[in-house]
């Protein structure tokens, strides 16, 4: 069995803690590798190396740092198929979906090529007699990121690319469920010209997370995962004086107005609800048709589309719609919530509980499910299922529909499907959700805008990627400079007004 490593100081390093986690092939249920779980001493070793390397890296001018990002983009394109295959093997995504995971991370790296422009300061000439004032954006030092299993390529790149472009060193603690791609990314960054020690990968669980949060040298922490853990990391990190951004759970609503193109809306819900087996923080898990007639038309369109979905392993060909969920525990939790939905009175229109894939009986596959007549007091509505389960909540009016999304504790993403420009503008203006789609089901912003939810979907004041990333990974220093001219007659002991 393969034994994975950490990546510390430019080399693959075996774990010394004696603790390991199993890495599964979700399609077969077999353990394919074991990954070491770092202790505080191993994390401290990586921090010591990073802190020494960062001083030299921060002194490299932004244009040269950007050239590393340029080369890294080339290498990502060169190795796209290799990265996608490794990602699919450990996560279970289809190959096209895995390549999309890499691509959306690559786009943030492309944005970071603009670091020289993003890191420019401000200057005021002659702010006073012989006085100039200017600001500088300087690197924080050593930064860290704690990333989830569902996007093992994209989210690490969303964090380490801008951090490194700003002149920081970065320690990545990826999910122990699919750690191979993060290790590969660190290798590629060094092949692109990044000095050893600037990007390191330390695998681990809560012990490594706590070591990150408590280490006094680490200046900032980024996290993506569940809301309870986001709250924990945000609280502990901030109390230790770190800059922290944490992105938590989601329950994303898509409102379907009576005038919407129902075929377009149904197709959008299929991709947004069942793609990647629903294991996306931006997945649409709640459809909200407005009016009984709209709901009936929508269900009529959805059922045959859902029943035709092809579920299978990533090796099953490009016509596979989605693969397994990541672990047996995840599968069990999804099925438990489905049973709860039935027990609480939701109508299970498409029942995938009996799904069984011949030859892959031990895999973590979950069939597609569609609930209708879900109410907001049900667990399947309140909780994030993170599986191939779509719930339909019927609203009798636009105001009721928008109220559902606004009253929910999560505020990551939402969408409306309509031909009415007035309704769309009102929805975009009023909704208290961070990312909004108008006839777009998964409104993930492109790299030059920022990504972030509201309410219990985000903790912190700056979003991921885009301009916010350069703010998060730098601090501003303001300099007031005076260069006297001529011979002065002595000291002055009071402030003179500006002339």
TrEMBL record:
Q: Which UniProt keywords apply?
A: NAD, Oxidoreductase
* Record Pfam families: Aldedh
Q: What InterPro entries does the database record attribute to this sequence?
A: Ald_DH/histidinol_DH, Ald_DH_C, Ald_DH_CS_CYS, Ald_DH_N, Aldehyde_DH_dom, MeMal-semiAld_DH
- Give the domain of life: Bacteria
Q: What is the E.C. number?
A: 1.2.1.27
Entry-linked CDD domains? ALDH_F6_MMSDH
GO molecular function, one example? methylmalonate-semialdehyde dehydrogenase (acylating, NAD) activity
Q: What is this protein called?
A: methylmalonate-semialdehyde dehydrogenase (CoA acylating)
List each copy of the Aldehyde dehydrogenase domain by range.
13-479
Q: Does the keyword Membrane apply?
A: no
The scientific name of the source species is Yoonia tamlensis
What general EC class does the enzyme of this chain belong to?
oxidoreductase
Concerning Gene3D superfamilies, the annotation shows:
Aldehyde Dehydrogenase, Chain A, domain 1 (3.40.605.10), Aldehyde Dehydrogenase, Chain A, domain 2 (3.40.309.10)
Query: Could you tell me the Gene Ontology terms of the biological process aspect for this record?
Result: L-valine catabolic process; thymine catabolic process
What is the annotated signal peptide range for this record? none
PANTHER family (UniProt xref): MALONATE-SEMIALDEHYDE DEHYDROGENASE (PTHR43866)
């Amino acid at each position: 069995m393969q034994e994975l490593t950490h990546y510390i100081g430019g080399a693959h390093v075996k774990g010394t803690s004696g603790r390991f986690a199993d890495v599964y092939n979700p399609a077969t249920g077999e353990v394919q590798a074991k990954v070491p779980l770092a202790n505080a001493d191993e994390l401290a070793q990586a921090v010591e190396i990073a802190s020494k390397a960062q001083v030299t890296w921060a002194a490299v001018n932004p244009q040269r740092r950007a050239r590393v990002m340029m080369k890294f983009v080339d290498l990502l394109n060169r190795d796209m198929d290799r990265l996608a295959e490794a990602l699919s093997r450990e996560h279970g995504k289809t190959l096209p979906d895995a390549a999309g995971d890499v691509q959306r991370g690559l786009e943030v790296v492309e944005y970071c090529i603009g670091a020289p422009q993003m890191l420019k300061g401000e200057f005021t000439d002659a702010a006073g007699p012989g006085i100039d004032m200017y600001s500088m954006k300087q690197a924080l030092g050593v930064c860290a990121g704690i990333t989830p299993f569902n996007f093992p390529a994209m989210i690490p790149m969303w964090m380490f690319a801008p951090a490194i472009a700003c002149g920081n060193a970065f320690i990545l603690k990826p999910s122990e469920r699919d750690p191979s791609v993060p290790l590969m990314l660190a290798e590629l960054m060094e092949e692109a010209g990044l000095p050893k020690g600037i990007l390191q990968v330390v695998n681990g669980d809560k012990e490594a997370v706590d070591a990150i949060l408590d280490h006094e040298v680490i200046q900032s922490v980024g996290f993506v995962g569940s809301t309870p853990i986001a709250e924990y990391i945000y609280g502990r990190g901030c109390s230790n004086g770190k800059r922290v951004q944490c992105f938590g759970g989601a329950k994303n609503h898509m409102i379907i107005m009576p005038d919407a193109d129902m075929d377009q809306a149904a197709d959008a819900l299929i991709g947004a609800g069942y793609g990647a087996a629903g294991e996306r923080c931006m997945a649409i898990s709640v459809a909200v048709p407005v009016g009984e007639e709209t709901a009936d038309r929508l269900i009529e369109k959805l059922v045959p589309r859902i029943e035709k979905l092809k579920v299978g392993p990533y090796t099953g060909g490009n016509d596979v719609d989605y693969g397994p969920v990541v672990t047996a525990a995840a599968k069990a939790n999804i099925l438990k919530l489905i049973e709860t939905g039935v027990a609480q009175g939701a109508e299970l229109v498409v029942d995938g509980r009996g799904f069984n894939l011949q030859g892959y009986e031990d895999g973590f596959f979950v069939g597609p499910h569609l609930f209708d007549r879900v109410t907001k007091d049900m667990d399947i509505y309140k909780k994030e299922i993170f599986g191939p389960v779509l719930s339909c909540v019927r609203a009798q009016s636009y105001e009721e529909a928008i109220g559902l999304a606004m009253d929910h504790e999560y505020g990551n993403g939402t969408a409306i499907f309509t031909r009415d420009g007035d309704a769309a503008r009102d929805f975009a203006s009023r909704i208290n959700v961070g990312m909004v789609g108008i006839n777009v089901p998964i409104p993930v912003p492109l790299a030059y805008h920022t990504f972030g939810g509201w309410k219990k979907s985000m903790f912190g004041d700056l979003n991921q990627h885009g301009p916010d990333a350069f703010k998060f990974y730098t601090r501003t220093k303001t300099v007031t400079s005076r260069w006297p001219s001529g011979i002065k007659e002595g000291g002055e002991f009071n402030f003179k007004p500006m002339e």
